[in-house]
Structures
1.
Amino acid sequence: MAMKRIILFLGIAALFGACRERFEAEQAYKLNNILVVEGFINVGDGITRIKLSRVTPLNTASTFVAETNAVVTIEDDDGSIFPLQNKTNGVYESGELNLGTDKHYRLRVEADEQVFVSEYTEPVITPRIDNVNWTRTEDNNLNITLSTHDPANETFYYKWEYEEVWETRTAYRSSWAYENGVARIRTSDEIKAMSTCWPRRRNSDLLMATSSALATDAITDFPLRTFPVTDVRLGFRYALTVTQRALTADEYEFLQVMKRNTNDLGGFFDSQPSQLIGNIRCETSNAPVVGFIGSYSSQVKLLIIKHSQVSDFDYTPQCPLGILNAFFEDPQFTLYLENALPTIPIYGPFVDDAAPIVGFELVPNTCADCRITSGTAPKPDFWVAEDGGEVE
Amino acid sequence: MTAGCFSPTLGQQEQPLLTVNLSQAPLKDLVQSVESQSKYRLYFRESDFENVLFTVAADRKPLSFILDEAFKNTSFHYAIDPELNVFLTKDVVITTQLLSDIIDDPNKANDRTKLSDDEENNRIAALNERRVFTIGAKNSGKQRATLSGTVKSVNTGEPIVGAGVTVLNSTVGTATDETGKYTLDLPVGRHQLIIRSIGMKPTQRTVILQSDGKLNVEMVTESANLKEVVVTSDRESHVKGIQMGVEKLDIQTIKYIPSSFGEADVLKAMLTVPGVKTVGEASSGFNVRGGATDQNLILFNNSTIYNPFHFFGFFSSFNSESIKSVELFKSAIPASYGGRLSSVLKVDGRQGDMKKVKGSAGIGVLTSRLNLEGPIWKDKISFLAGARTTYSNWIFGVVPERSGFRGSKASFFDANATLTAKLNEKSTIMVNGYMSNDESNLNTDTTYAYQNRNVSASWTNEFSDKLYAEFITAFDHYEYGNKSTSDPQYAYELKFGINQTKLNANFTYELTPAHTLQFGVNSIYYSINRGTYNALSSQSVIRPDRVEPEHGLESAIFLEDEFQITQKLSVSGGLRYSLFNYLGAHTVNSYAPGVPRTEETIVGTADYGKNEVIKTYSGPEVRLSARYAITDNFSVKASYNTLRQYIHMLSNTVAISPTDTWKLSDPNIKPQFSQQYSLGVYGKVFKNFETSLEVYKKDIKNYLDYKSGAVLIMNHHVETEVMTTKGNAYGAEFMIKKPTGKLNGWISYTYSRILLKMDDPIAGESINRGKYYPASYDKPHDFNLTLNQKITRRLSFSLNTSYSTGRPVTIPIGVFYYGGAPKTLYSDRNGYRIPDYFRMDFAVNVEGSHKLKQWIHTSWTFGLYNMTARKNPYSVYYTSEKGVINGYKLSILGTVIPYVNFNFKF
């Protein structure tokens, strides 16, 4: 609908020789001062994880600007205080607190000499996830869906976050290293770390649903994730850990507004964007702040899909660029190594029963070191525990 | 040359004999001498007799002898009537017998108007201006008397509504009513009446008022072949009329205001008067004194027009060839009108010519229009029919293929017809029909279409000199249908429509000359199709849906008294009592009290049967105004008004969009209410300049605003999406106008604000934390200059300049990450403004030859719209490019638009 509106808008514009020019409004706020608080107070099993960041101005490439120097605590209405640890990149985590559901909780954030507090909220108990299933469609997509329900008919609003992890391997192994003019054989651990990775991704979308329009408080087959069966994720093994939590109607509305605001950007017939009204305020000034912090319990479920379950296609790691035979005597040899890794040595003519290494077969470094694209996340704990053995 | 003419009756009487001996004496000596010896009263224009000396020697002679003697070998003439009034004139021979025929015998008066030739009309008009009319019987013994009559067009026989009738050198004045009638309470004696009306040549009558009597006035159409066309509005009414906050533009004025594609546009012209604004040049609807676009009652020949614009607001949907005048009430709204909070815009069409068949047509770049009128039965029944169409589709044919717009479609037309039947002098029946159609797709796969259909009939009857009545019935229809058929699987049609049937009975009763009562009953029955959504093909997977239609009855009784307390002070007090019934059949949700209305808080539903009264709202509406004339040229006016509105337009877009719907007040949506106080001073300075300053303050209650991302289309419980706001509007409007002269025009400046505040305790969310915020049409400064310079009779230049503050917008101000993805942070609602608006237009009007006998009259208009080519932003929008959100200003008419228009009349 939004797209149609924009087309219509531009249609009218084009008809009458409309033209567009850049528009930059004078900024009324110091944008880097607007704090963004994301997360929830976890009252059940598990930890509370709060993410703090800063709003960035519009006309810069949007990047995540973490707030790394804050003091974050959970407070209950009896005055107890539970501090959160400052992790990396704006993430603050508690331990396993097992907070009771008989109290009300709020979050307090001290950052940049300002104090922000959320409203005290009553904990909402999240019903368990009934199941997480996957199906393969005719056009070779893999759909992962989730079903849940609240037998007490009290929840109605649900939010999910997931983290997916899969195993990826490189097309080549870099058995040798060439550093500071010296070639050496890598250790097997070193090779393993470079050739097998477990990239992790969190959802980048607000996933929520409501059963408020339905007769029973049940969500059936909510679409969590879709990708083609030929995706690299299914090359060996794929796991998806989904965390479900209830939402209050207020937080649901807050998130809906945020979602809608991002989709429509003020076209001809677009509705007015709305201001985000969260439940956090600044105690020390009237500094604006974005966020909604409620207290909920959460439910987790793990789904694992092995390659064998979708084995009718072949997944072999590919290296799009070929192999380069590079010799030490090539003046550009060290230059090549900036973007490439040695695989096997090239030997020169025998000298005293031994052939000296005169060069290496080089491959692009992304083809022999998966950490470059997939990161250094360790093998998940459940990777072994699930079926009792390593995947080969 | 000397001529005396005695009435036959006078001849039978004994003429008094007088003795006058004067040598080289001024006329006043002669007059004094005659009047001291007899009951004769001599009347003359002093200027005619300045510096003229007379010599008479008469001993016991009749007056005729004396005057014959005095005027011998001069160009002076005299006439003596049976009442012993003597009229002295220069150059003109007058007959007193003829006068009484014109005044009292309507049939004979009618005979005299059977003059089809313009020249003859003018000659008669000129003669009447110089005559002296004696009204009523002499020696009635009264100090004061009532003069009444009808003002008509000599050209068409139509009564002239709203003509100003003023008395020279006094503060007395009035305006003609809907039948062209006027009534004046005057001291007996000689008076000079000035009669003016827009589009008509001003005229004057000299009367000697002796007791109550009638004087009908015929006015001549002001056309280019008679006299220069001047930009004029009700010249006297601002200073002398009791009404305030009334803006009237006649079609002649409108035609001289440069417009975007050269076609005279009645609604766009209204935007040049103070207090009327629009959010942008391509937007439907207008805002009056801080009111929303749905708070204007737009009446075209008594029909309510729900969407008065073509093509998303580029053109107004009224054919300028068929329009007589446009009148906008923005503060003191007469009690006979109601149902909208901000204004009444009355577009009056012309009546067909009763004398001869005529036509006019105009050809422009994008549109053409035609108007035809004439008698069906001469002097009894006339018709007028107009039509207008666009051929803008050719533009889509020539745009480059790569633009993606080739093959787009946009078409519209409108047609109107009026049948007028004069049953007799006092009784007229009028039937009006109007339709407009719009359809466009703009190369999307959706067709947006909307239609107005209106029929109205009225019977006006003068039951007696004192009682005049108007009965109106009208049927109004508006609908839209948006459909898409390109993908059979999703082929759909979305429809919405309003039907309303109206019955009005309005009476005007002249209780005494000082008290004029207006009273009546109005009733509207609404039937609204709130939305149907249907599959348009057999394969379509669209699930048909229908929002339950709704019905309502809005009724009102009103009484208004215009009371002239003294010559300087008049007041008008009106009371309108309006009553609204929300009627079944309907199912109504009830919500848990005190909590936000959502689907979850529905605690019950109730079914109501057909025509069962579900909910009743009612209340009084007060209409008060007063005028105090400090001097002849300076007056002060004040008014207080309250209004109620029972129908709401649901739209959460800035402009009227093709998906806006209307909704009646129901148990969950309260009627809107407003009250307005205004005060104005009006003065005439330097003889030719009219100035006015009006200040106002307006409070609005229960105006609907929408929750974030409200879903308004096909919503079965729209009350969960809306919240009520209160509005606070105030402003000052300043205007200087030079209505006549070779250079004429006006300058207006308005400072105004409209601030809204969410005050719904159960809305569940608040806009800008419950503080006041500017409405999207809040444009504090607004300046307008409209000038017309006459070079010759056939050549004139027009210039229009407007400036206004940019309108407020809500814009993205930053980006943040949430849920792992970038999200946009918006400013407060309407926290920013787009750049200021400035535009200057220029037009050259060339009239063709105006030989009177020529059967066709042509005129050309050449113009430049937006001659400075300023790229006035209509809106700002934001788009994500390579991960960066960039803002753009979009101007729709961001270049010079030259145009040419050819008009002809036959």
Note: Residues 28-123+260-293 of chain A form one domain.
2.
Amino acid sequence: MDDLYREVIIDRYQNPRFSGTLDPHTHSYEDDNPVCGDHIRIDLRVDDKDIVTEAKFTGEGCSISQASADLLMEKITGMPVADVRGLAKQDILDLLGIELGPVRLKCALLSLKVLKGGVYGLDEVMSLDELAES
Amino acid sequence: MTNSQQGHSLDIQRIRADFPVLDVEVQPGVKLVYLDSGATSQKPVQVIERMNQYYRAENANIHRGVHKLAEQATEDYEAVRGKLAKFINAAKSKEIVFTRNATESVNLVAHTWGRANLQAGDVVVLTEMEHHANLVPWQMLAAERGIRLEFIPVTEEGVLDMSALPALMELKPKLVSFTAMSNVLGTITPIAEIVQAAHAAGALAMVDGAQSVPHLPTDVRALDIDFLVFSSHKMLGPTGIGVLYGKEALLEAMPPFMGGGDMIKRVKLREFSTAGVPHKFEAGTPAIAEVIGLGAAVDYLTEIGMEQIAAHDRELTAYALERLEEVPGIWIFGPGIEHKSSNASFTLKGAHPHDVAEILNRSGVATRAGHHCAMPVHEKFGVPATTRASFYLYNTTEEIDTLVEALYKVKEIFK
């Protein structure tokens, strides 16, 4: 009955598996969605083979932004950084398994934006608007 | 409690019939319950038709041509200045300046009066509950000029801490600029008291009336306000038009705002002289249809009566506070009904405000979620966002019941 608030989203929002920070970490990056004030920080540990061995997030925001962050951390754990760089909008939508309107799409993509900021460095990140239109 | 017999004479069903959008179904079978008038009000058919009529049969530029339509458009446009002057009890029509919105009105004052009168170290007093519109323009001037910003604090209850005022006035501020009604907390501030304190300290007093002017009677002369800003679109008028009221002598002494046509008396290749007040602040072709539409909105509000509207909004707010308090896990921001009107901002335990607003939307209930362009006041209360339901003359107690029922649906999803 409820597409947007699927069980998995409510569950991940209420009981995130990958919530927290990593100390030490190899990558840490945080950002806001200026429209709504949602905030996400992501910490990564990347080993010398360029594989993400651990990923954690902290943040504040709606169920969509927090659930997508948690699902994304799960997906990238064990993933080569080269593959993390290749993640795109559709991967997030597949993780969530829902259709999103233009406003909530940006909620969902905030964690991907932060992740890309972490693994690319500051300069090469797409804005949320660019990501949403990608 | 029925919606049309609440001890005042507003005929809500008749009023609702004037607002075509209230009949819209946002999903099949689900009627719009519009509780977002704090963001922008809906428009009655009288305003919509008046603007259509202008574009269909009266369109011409103003203050130029001598042809019939141009003369008529000029006359109609200027007549709205008179209506607005009367609406807020200004002494003269020329004290009404048209801008794009309340935000531009604040920027106009900061840019012209501020730059002409404020030096490094001069103090401007604001409050902790300001909308960004009455905050950022002063921050920009602080960065440019080194003026000093001070703030009347907000108490835990969500009212201004007036005990802090004497010490702030001892700083000899040049300007005290404050909201008359918080767009987040709904708090109605003690305008007369603040204006008096400002004047006693030698400061001017500017009032952000974006929320108050649509909901409460306004009398700039009784309150001795120096500048008042407000927006058309929150008081049944179209977007794209705002108002700056300023006392004539102050406006006369201020430098112009933007340069161009209409704001000049005479132009040579290397110099110009400015037009008089208010035209020197209205460069370029203004939003003529919108001003005329705003005139129809003022007529509409005047005919119903601002006292009646204020009473209705207050009763609805009181009812909303009472009903909302029943909902387990709710935290309502701002003071009780004795100090507020027209909105209720809240958080619901376990559900983010965006999710709340999204689920309310399924019952047709339109609210706003976020920081409502007032991040500092949210920070003060330690929340990044709230959900805000805001009320106006066309809202009913039944609609508030729908809001409360929908909140229980939120709780079911986020149990």
Note: The interface with chain B takes residues 2, 4-5, 10, 14, 35-39, 60-64, 66, 104, 107 of chain A (CB under 8 Å).
3.
Amino acid sequence: MAGSVHLIDRRLNGGNKSATNRQRFIRRYKEQLKRAVGDMVDKRSITDIDSGGEVNLPSRDISEPTFRHGPGGNRETVHPGNREFSPGDTIQRPRGGEGGGGGSEAGEGEGTDSFVFTLSREEFLDIFFDDLELPNLVRNYLGAVQQKKMVRAGYVVEGSPTNLSVPRTMKSSLGRRVALSAPIRRELEAATAALAQARAQPAEAAEIERLEAQVAEIEARLKRVPFLDDLDLRYRHRVFVPQPVARAVMFCLMDVSASMDERKKDVAKRFFTLLYLFLSRKYEKVEIVFVRHTDNAEEVDENTFFHDPKSGGTVVLSALELMHEIQAERFPVGQWNIYAAQASDGDAFGSDAGKSARFLGEKIIPACRYFAYVEVPDGQDARQSSLWVEYDTLTAAAPNFAMRRVCERDEIYPVFHELFKKETA
Amino acid sequence: MAGTVPVREKRLPQGPDWTFELIDEYELEIRKTAAEFGLDTYPNQIEVITSEQMLDAYASVGLPIGYPHWSFGKEFIRNEQAYRKGAQGLAYEIVINSNPCIAYLMEENSMMMQALVVAHASYGHNSFFKGNYLFRQWTAADAILDYLVFARRYVMECEERYGIGAVEEILDSCHALMNYGVDRYRRPQPLSAREEEARMSERNDYIQRQFNDLWRTVPAAGTSKVGHGKRSVFPAEPEENILYFIEKHSPRLAPWQREIVRIVRKVSQYFYPQGLTKVMNEGWATFWHYTLLNRMYDKGQLEDGFMIEFLQVHTNVVTQRGFDERGYGGINPYALGFAMMRDIRRICEAPTDEDRLWFPDIAGGDWLKVLDFAMRNFKDESFIAQYLSPKLIRDFRLFTVADHESKSYLEIDSIHNEEGYRRVRRLLAQHYNRDVSMPDVQVVRYERDTDRSLVLRHLIHRNRPLVSTEATEVLKHLTRLWGFTVRLEAIDADGRLDHYRECTA
């Protein structure tokens, strides 16, 4: 009973004992997530699994299955807090499987594993875009605006005291001392030997005295070799190295004429957003230029672009011309990676469609890394628009031009995925 | 003796902040008070940890050392997120059934909380671990820490040698069957890491010594006869410890894989009593922190402020929400256990006529002796069947709901009235019966002489089916461990085959 309890302070042991376990879990979770994203993207993969025979390997996901009772069968449960029930009262069976006395049934047969786990934006995008690749990914570096980075560049003899490298300094000091004192030491050895010899075979007192003076003089010279000299000082050297920044500009072109309703705009916006996210993963810096057009085009900010209603006719060419102008003026081809996405319902009148296609083919596509045209038709069975027909002539000649039709929101990602599918070469 | 006229004793220093000296001082006083009531405990070891370390300890289901596995990481992240969002507070304590008994104190807690945890864990749980028959019989408190060190090292060595993925696969499969890795009737061999290692190296040596390639060429004697005679069923008796059967008989497992199966089995065995005594264990510990601290207050050692803070925490712990209240999560084992322990004391100290009728043998008895007897000799199921009094059923307003598949509605089966008491008590006890809550799945046949397939039997209890998707998944895990076809037959109450599922290797 005597003595004090064994009391230990473990706080300094450090946490993170389960760091490995956490990492392993996250890796596993990502695998599962990737599968889910993949299934979402490509519906065929789900049907393939269904039809492709049974898989007899345990799935590598984050579930922890056990044998346990499911709903059904006969059982009685006990609950506290009865207020109004008498024996024989009947209650409607709660919907959704698990029975229970009116309340949730947690005592037995727990529900599904509702595990929610947040991913950082980067982690999410990594998984989201994992098997996608930008076509023609060449990084044009910009000369003018450069970021600088300090890198080590050896040692120099001049510098500020804070950069003094003590080991280097001592090293050169030692070398200098060895070099300077070696001949003196040799002399000293010779002189000491001579003195010893003179003493051994009695020589004249004057001779011994002279030799002693000589030894003393050499020793004094040896002492004069300085321990540290200005010459020895070495400083760490750092230099600025310019870091090239890969930049991209993304042009968003949208038809905002009366026929583009909110639903179509919403679809277009989603496409633009995906493209932006995707570009920002590949380039350090992405600028966006919003160009909207009715019968004439203007450059606007994001909010106006998506939300400001404007009505009028449709002249696609005006937007293309404006884009070309802006690009030539502000984003020279050699310094910027240029991407463009155009969304429209494809309504173009008269010769506009033909002219636009020609302008696109001659002026814009050669300057672009990639140009995507997304058409948002009125419905799935809408006939091909005039713009679509004209643009279609370009696809064969220009590999960096692609066009797709998107009707519904949930088609966006599959279409996007298809556009940027990694080439399996 | 407790309960006599309070003796004024020196007041303990108060204040929210704790120091090591203070914990020492409080612990000494709690120890003295516990001795008044005759609590018998393992020696105590108290460790102060940070909240992050507490989360770590949580993740490894309260074990101080665990082998690496992703599921522990999942647990950690789940708890951490709940804690960060404020959806869940950290448990105030974790206590390990070992000798010495290790209790963790969290650094953020106030002095009052530390005192509460010391009373709860180091004296409440500790004495339960030492006294309860299940723990005495089934776990080796002296050896568990050494064994865990051994297990961790072994698993990590295997990871180095065979790859993390390979080890993880085996562990995943074992975890799926963890609940079926328990011996319930046979007393397990005591654990000793040293023996375990010696046993292993001996086995390896033996294999090395006995290895002789010639044996391969000797024609197997007698194999041809077996086919003609009566086919013997193996195992002769159904085996409920599935992991044990796999460890001993799996045709495909490599020695190191068998060893991992064994490790999971041993850990599962260690937790077996804890699952059976949740209500009693928590009830007992809660009862004692309540009793000990109140006794110290009566002696004048604790201030009013301390007690008010303490009672607030205590009340939160023993709250039982009604079935229709928000946040109802079934019966709170702390609430039920604490109420029952208190009720037993009440029945002894101030029995009513009803109590004399229901509990003639303990009404008016010595409550310390009665409680001690109850703690030592029961598990949740039998404890409730024995001691749940009509008064408590009324207090909790317990009622039972019958959910029968033949009816399209639920029916109130019985409530807290004269006709219902016994049935409510029996059904509540059933709720804690492992045989009822866990599906009965056992190994019945190993086709040694034919295709080496394994047949398991699921005895359907009252028509309750398994969760189908999970059962299929577990079967795949089982197949991985077994290496050949595994078949799970569902047998209905009349002994007829209802349906089966199969997984081919």
Note: The radius of gyration of chain B is 26 Å.
4.
Amino acid sequence: MKKVLGIFSVLVTVALVTAIISPAFLSSYNIENLLRRSALFGIIGIGASLVIITGGIDLSIGSVICLIGCLTPWLITVIGISPWIVVPSLLVLATGLGLTHGFLVTRLKLQPFLVTLCGLFVYRGITRGILADSTVGFGTSGSELRSLGTGRIPITDSFGLPAPLLILAVVALVTSFGLRRTIWGRHLLAIGSNETAARHCGIDVNRVKIGAYALCGLLAGLGGLLFVLDTGSAQPSNFGNFYELYAIAAAVLGGCSLRGGEGTVIGVLIGATLVQVLRNAIVLIDEIPDSIEFAVIGGIILLAVIADEAVRRAVARRSNED
Amino acid sequence: MLLAVAGYFAFSYRESAEQPNANAAPRLAFVTNGVADFWVLAGKGVEDAASEIGVTSSFHMPPDGLADQKRIIEDLIVKGVDGIAISPIDPVNQTPFLDRIAAQTLLITHDSDAPDSKRICFIGVDNYEAGRMCGELVQQALPDGGQVAIFVGRLEQDNARLRRQGVIDQILGREWDSSRYDKPGQVISGNGFEVVATLTDQFDMAKGKANVEDILSRHPDIAGCIGLFAYNTPLILEALKQSGRIGKVKVISFDEDERTLQGIIDGTVHGTIVQNPYEYGAASMRLLKALVAGDRSSIPDDGIIKVPARTIRKAEVEQFRADMYKKLGQ
């Protein structure tokens, strides 16, 4: 918990300041919206963090979201295939893309940046090609599938837990358990800290790394599915644009070192939430013009990283004194 | 092998350059300001008109904004098109660029004008007038006034600015003046109405929906939501549905997204203002063909060929939709 203290305090500060300036921030409706958005970005953030922990990077997340997000409504409403077939197949496809990245990175020894950058271009291009650039959506037919993205479990009259949050909870618990309590997770962290040492210890580095990329692909696919279930339609040219950067920002904010070897799931979730709270605050606070959104997000992320570093150093100093 | 391919293309290019298309069909191009279903209809108009009047047409939707549009237009010039119809993304700043294009080929604008450029003619709707028509719908939907919010992809485009200004001027009961501009980010009120915000999403759907949700949080008493781009209204409907306020908050729309039309039938959308993108495409091809032949007789003195906007409400929606499907060949 100590590791995420800095970033958590930034999140609390931003939330408090926003709530003081705009009381609507704390309305149950707004909180519900924030939980849903943070859950969606949290899912792809966890995927990004697994790859980052190995010292790699995945730039293709946004394009995988585009591919899965656009193909889902297209296959269901235009082609007319049952959602029971479409959803599992597309998740397998996304996992397969991740596996391919992992294979190219480990067996062919290509740079992760390069492999996934090509993925970024290729998947968006394929999606735009398949759909000839036209918008696809679930139309007016209320597919039951959509409740996965838009559904909620009512807690009070005005507040409910959004369905994506429950999915995130499962993803987070499984990943957290996997990272902390399984051999695979231990190996993943070991590889990120020192790949050569891990290899000498007899860890099957390639297999563990391929697994990380595959999981990242799967979670990006799941994210794409939930995003399109939430918005109802997707445009191949811009769906999921830059989302890999939000995912990477969430992971890094949450304490994943880009040099690898570090990272916690809870940190990633706090990081994802911080970005969404910031975007929300910019709309809710009248004094901040919409147009400087990116500047605000960039500035606060930088501050958060600085605060995080300061807290870590203070903690380290205290434990040295002990 | 690559060299061989490049060599082949270089050779075939030279061949085509050496043969001026004196008796060949004119080569015309139509460039949009982005990717949207709206433009698919325009593309159909381009295609239909081209085969009808015997020209070779090409149709381009730049996916990534200004730089992308510029790249495509430059490539078309390299390809040697005889005439080109463009919807400028940023008319003011693109004017020098458009002038360079006008020096190399026959240039007309469609959808959104660049009046200070050397374009020969503009084909499109009067967006300010269309905005005022939309404002009339708002007044009908909310006879007692109230708080309204405007949602739009981006405000850098002339058509978005003019539509927004038209809506605001109409509901505030102001004089007609298309040069007026209320800066976004301030509350504008009068005549019983209060425009609490104009929010842009830069074509990010998730952000567009989040904008609506945030307004619903921030202004619980919001009475009307106005979507100025085709995809804004479906996102407004999604957000309202999820918050359980569908039908309670009035929705006024632009363009003809399927879910907007269905909303009008269901009564969740009060009405929409539609343009005629099919006609933009078809009229551009007809005009450019005449221009290639040296015929300028169809251009009005002010250089603007107006394609009027229409108001679609419950009474007109079925007929309109059937007609649209027919044009799309569905």
Note: Residues 127-274 of chain B form a domain with the Rossmann fold fold (CATH 3.40.50.2300).
